[in-house]
Amino acid sequence: MYYGYKESIDDSVMKYLPELKETIWEATTIRHLLTHTHGLNQKEEVVFREYPPGQNWTYRQVGIDALTQIVKKTTSRTVSDIIQEQVFRPLGFSESNWYAHKHEKHADVILRHEEDGNWKTSESTEGDKMNMYVSARELAYWGYLHLKQGKVDGKQVVSKEIIKLATSLQSPLTLHEDLPQNGFLWFVKDLPAKQSEIGAEVPKGSYQILGYTGVTLLVIPQENLVAVRMFNSFGSPEGYDYLSDVRSFGDTVMNCLQRISIDV
Q1: Beta strands of 68-136 (E only): which ranges?
Q2: Residues 225 and 109 in one domain
């Protein structure tokens, strides 16, 4: 599956990373990593289990790290190499990449306090750390690529089947119905879910992805629409309701569409 490098997203993670500790990673699948339901966390260099795989939802970097390791081990290439060759170059992207060192054109990240230990950049450009940059224009175009199911200007840049899988519900059936729902890392709007990160006014079939600094990309196929908001602030200030805020983005977009329809 996926160019023959992996057989199934329900494969065990240990099938590809047998060096991992079996008592911790046992029963964890690629699906669990892709949907943030793996139940693992990491403190310093120690990985530990918070809950059984598929039983809850939490975003933890340890899951992303495992995914990037699997990609590198099965393809002998990094995430950034693959995306550069198969997406960025065909689309002519020049404002998106991973950086090893800060550049004058990169906006500074605003931290809650000067030495916020939760923000850690890296010299790695393999696609596994918090040092990717993107412009609003190219982030919107990334959403447009998905909206058009991988086909842009008459060319199938990314397989239609992969886009459909990535943006449709892939969360395990064992997950509680009120928890966030995911495709391949994308949040998806499927069944009503109290903890969904997509606004209540946004129609079913929409999907959304977020960045470390509050960046949000929302795709609404029903309206043939892509919406982007850009932030460069990391961490939540006291009293900030993250879930309410990110939902309000989609709801605001939908309210604007309704006003346009009324005015017309």
Answers
A1: 97-98, 132-133
A2: yes
Which residue in the block uniquely carries the two structure tokens 């992996």? 6
The 8-class DSSP code of residue 79 comes to: H
Domain count, the chain: 2
**CB–CB of 157/86 below 8 Å?**
yes
In the chain, what is the greatest distance between 2 CA atoms, to the nearest angstrom? 61
Q: How many Å apart are CA 242 and CA 240, to the nearest integer?
A: 6
In a domain, 135, yes or no: yes
Buried b / exposed e over 138-171, threshold 16 CB at 10 Å, is bbbbbbebbbbbbebeeeebbbeeebebbbbebb
Partners of residue 46 on adjacent β-strands: 43
Distance CA 246, CA 10 (A): 30
Give mean pLDDT, residues 84-93.
Answer: 94
Residue 244 CB burial class (10 angstroms; 0-12, 13-18, ≥19): exposed
Q: Are residues 127 and 251 in the same domain?
A: yes
Report the distance separating Cα 184 and Cα 182, nearest Å. 6
What value does the CA radius of gyration of the chain take, rounded to a whole number of Å? Answer: 19
Indicate if 126 and 22 belong to the same structural domain.
Answer: no
Q: How far is CA 95 from the centre of its chain?
A: 19
Is 156 within the bounds of a domain? yes
Residue 2's pLDDT band, with cuts at 50, 70 and 90, is: very low
pLDDT in tens, 11-64: 999 999 999 999 999 999 999 999 999 999 999 889 999 999 999 999 999 999
CB atoms closer than 10 angstroms to residue 26: 13
Structural domain span for residue 14: 1-76
